[in-house]
Structure formats: C-alpha cells, structure tokens
Write a structure and sequence with these properties.
2 domains, Glucose Permease (Domain IIA), twelve-stranded antiparallel beta sheet, mainly beta, Peptidase family M23, 46% strand, eight-stranded antiparallel beta sheet, 1% helix, DUF8155_N, 27 strands, 1 helix
C-alpha cells in the first residue's frame, strides 16, 4: 500500500526528499523530509503540520551521539483527518520540540512546535520535519515500518551539465548557481538524470537514492557518468567518487525544491570552495575508471 502526499501538503514546504538520508526509515522511499526554509534563509525553526488531525502522543526519543547535537529528539503521532487520502492513518513526525499535546486537534499548516537539530542530523543538513505514515494497527514507535510514499506533484527535471559558480557556502557545503529554477514558487524541480526523471538522495555519502517521475530499471547516469542501478524508483549507488574541479568531495545532495535559491549542493567538509569560484562536478568510479 503506497500513500500519496497531495500537493496541498507539499506546497507548504520549500523542499522535500524521500531518499536524502542515511537512515533505514527512508529505505524504498518510506519516509519524507520536509524543509520549511531554504538554504540561504538561515536554519528556520518553523514547524508547520503537514496534515490536520488529533495528537495521539508526544515523546522524547534517543538520537545518535554527535558532538554538535543533543542526544534526544522528539516524536509526534497524529491521527490524520485530512487530507482525504491520509484520513484514518497515523502520521509520525520527528525533529520537532512539540508545543502540542495528546488530545489536541491541529490544522494543516498550524505550528507543531519548534524544529530541533538532534544527533540524527549531519552538519550539512538543514532543519526539517521527518514524516512517515502508518496504519493505526502497525507499531507506531519503531523507527522502520512506515508505508511507501508517493508525491502528488509533478517534479520538473532540470538539465545540468555539472558546472556552476559558487553562490553560497557553509562550513560543510557549497551551493552553485546552476541548475536555475525557471519559475520559482510555482513548481518543484530537481536535477535530471540522463534517462529522465529527477534524482533524489545523497550521492554517494548515503547508500542509495531515488528518481522521481520516471521508472529507471537499470543503469542511471548523469552527464554520461554512471551513478548506479535503479530498481523502479530506488537507486543503489555504484562505488563512486564525486569530484569538484578534479578533487574528490564527500558528495552531491539531491532533492526537490520550489524556491529561487535552488542550485546544486556540494557536500565538502574537507575542502574549501569560495563564493565566485567556477566549479565542474563529475562522478567517477572509486577505482579511477
């Protein structure tokens, strides 16, 4: 059983990703990360609810130990009464310090609390809500087991030749000015795979990724560089290295976005890229071929 998240839900957020995560909860696209803010507006703390419904429970949960983040996070369980496609299902939400409590009814878009950065976050990951959907008869507390998700929006694939100029940087990442969103705010876009569809995931710093809008059984590539092998929409990355101007970096962050700040995001905690620097990104086999 796959659950479709309608446009009204996704349109509240600037970005989303089904696969850009190292955690098993995202395997096969069974969870989605919803980003209320953009890369350049700072790390927003707003946490609009993706659905309407009644709060079943809130609880603190343990997070992986990281030197830069607390070891606890929060889980919110909502019995959904809207949108219609999700009515009667239970929505699990992580990374929000709740301002709501059990028995309270919330409307879609209403604040659930304040976004938090727990040990689940890599340092280059922006604030977001982690969302999964389950039937009420399922185990609602274990990390895995949510239903596969579909997105009820068309994601526009943007051709990208792997080049761009650095327009923003953080301690662990750099953002390029390409590809450019043609109609900011009107539709979601992402980087186009050679065979069609939009790429999603952390290449190759997370184990796998996905492709939206086109089934790609078989080899998936970008600008002629082989990335991995797809089974339906899910991709297993090859043993590859992403390079920027010929030097290896941690990887390429791939997601869907509707904001004007969209551009390729390079994960490079061990390398400094300067604003204004021209960059060419390639993907190579780790053995140099």
């Amino acid at each position: 059983m796959a659950v479709t998240l309608p446009e009204a839900t996704l349109a509240q957020y600037e970005r989303f990703s089904l696969y850009n995560s190292p955690y098993p909860a995202h395997d096969e696209g069974c969870a989605i990360d919803l980003y209320p803010g953009t890369l350049r507006d700072g790390r927003t703390t707003a946490a609009p609810s993706p659905v309407s419904g009644t709060v079943l429970e809130t609880r603190a949960v343990r997070a992986p130990s990281k030197p830069y983040a607390p070891e606890h996070d929060y889980l919110i369980l909502l019995e959904c009464d809207g949108p219609a496609d999700l009515e009667g299902l239970v929505v699990r939400i992580l990374h929000v310090d709740p301002s709501v409590e059990a028995g309270q009814h919330v409307e879609r878009g209403e604040s659930l609390g304040e976004l938090v950065r727990a040990g689940f976050f890599a340092p280059w990951v922006d604030n977001h809500l982690h969302v999964g959907v389950r039937r009420p008869d399922q185990n609602l507390h274990r990390a895995t087991g949510s239903l596969p998700l579909e997105v009820g929006v068309d994601v526009c694939p943007l051709a990208w030749d792997g080049t761009g100029t650095v327009v923003a940087t953080g301690e662990t990442y750099a953002v390029l000015d390409a590809p450019t969103h043609p109609t900011p705010g009107e539709t979601f876009v992402g980087v186009r795979a050679d065979g069609g569809g939009v790429l999603d995931g952390g290449l190759p710093h997370y184990d796998g990724g996905g492709v939206h809008g086109a089934s790609q059984d078989g080899i998936v590539s970008l600008n002629g560089d082989r990335l991995g092998v797809a089974d339906g929409r899910t991709i297993t990355w090859d043993d590859v290295v992403v390079t920027a101007n010929g030097e290896s970096i941690t990887g390429l962050s791939l997601f869907c976005a509707r904001d004007a700040d969209f551009g390729a995001k390079l994960i490079c905690p061990d390398r400094t890229l300067e604003v204004g620097e021209r960059v060419r990104v390639r993907v190579r086999s780790s053995d140099g071929r």
